[in-house]
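Input.
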Amino acid sequence: MIRKSIALLALVVASADAFKFMSNWQPPKILTDEQKVKMADMEERFGDKKLVVITGCSSGLGRQTVKNLLATNKYHVVGAVRDVEKMEAVAEIEEFDMDNFHIMECELNSFESVEKFCDELEEYQLGKPIDRLLCNAGVYQPSLPYAKWSVDGHEQTMQINFLSHFLMVSKLIDRMRDAPDPRVVMVGSVTGNDNTVGGGGVYPIADLKNLDGFKAGFNNPVAMADGYGFIGAKAYKDSKLSLMMMSNFLHAKYNKNTGIAFSSIYPGCIAETPLFREKRAWFRKYFPIFMKYITGGYVGVEEAGQRLFQVAHDPRCSKSGVYWSWNGGPREGRGAAALEKSGQISGGGGAGGGWDSIYENDQSDKVNNLELCVDLFKTATDITGAQWPDAKTFTSPCPTLKVISTISENMIAREELKRMAGE
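Output.
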């Protein structure tokens, strides 16, 4: 009896191993001459480098991130920017390797421009999957007394920071599935996380409430996601809250069946950045001093760029559903040459820290509100016209199983019709 049980167990194990083998098996592909040429062109363009797409990289955080990516000689970077001429000038100043840096126009103030960018990017890919999508671009207009409207008639800050990135992810997600370690990274903010002093102690507070503004279509004159009065600073905070919520939702919906890691980050308070260009002159002068010497929370733009680079590059950051942040004390006397030297990130400022100071930060109840995340996904899909792929689970390629499944489905359908008919 025992021998029979052991033999049966061995048979089950052997069958399981055979099934695992079959699950990865693909019939040999016969390439056409056109496909062979396309593969040769792809090899010539990208070589063995990973393909990165980053929005908003002509200044600030994005600019520094591209510098770090290209410095490794392991990435081919596509910069999606509003002003191509400005980006070309920056690339020349920074001496970017233009063999591995490609500039493409993408105006996040227009859904049509986002869709055009995604279509043109597909042609540029030549069939190569996207390894990283870094949703970095953003605007901050806290002093606006009234809302500005996008080309599509939506409040500008929310469209540029969140809605257009939402649309972009929906169009690119299928082109990331075949990458070996695909990642989508949303640049969030402490201001969107109200379980912190920066997010919960300074008015206005990020709060989508019941999304009444989105549910009403979010068209002019509805300027806020919650449907209430416009405040420029709140529009920014709400957009960052939306990005962080959507990162969590996409993780839950797509991570297991696509292998894509969805995460968000807070790179620190970049007190000297073009993001604050619309703040008053006195604020731009004294805010960096306050953050550096009073709160100790100052983060230089170079260090912040290394942090976004780390989440794109570090093998530890392939984990999905995470909100990445950094700890650490003052970091002085480090330069660009310290990048990845002894595993340390260079930088200057009280919020600085080494490569190993990265950690999985806690998120607020608002960010983790599952019901609201679902509503956000549905309403943003309606507003943008996004078409998301089905979240399909793995199915066995076994021909026998497919035949049995077909027979079972027909039988089950007949029995269910009988039950519904009351027979």
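The chain has a mean pLDDT of 82.
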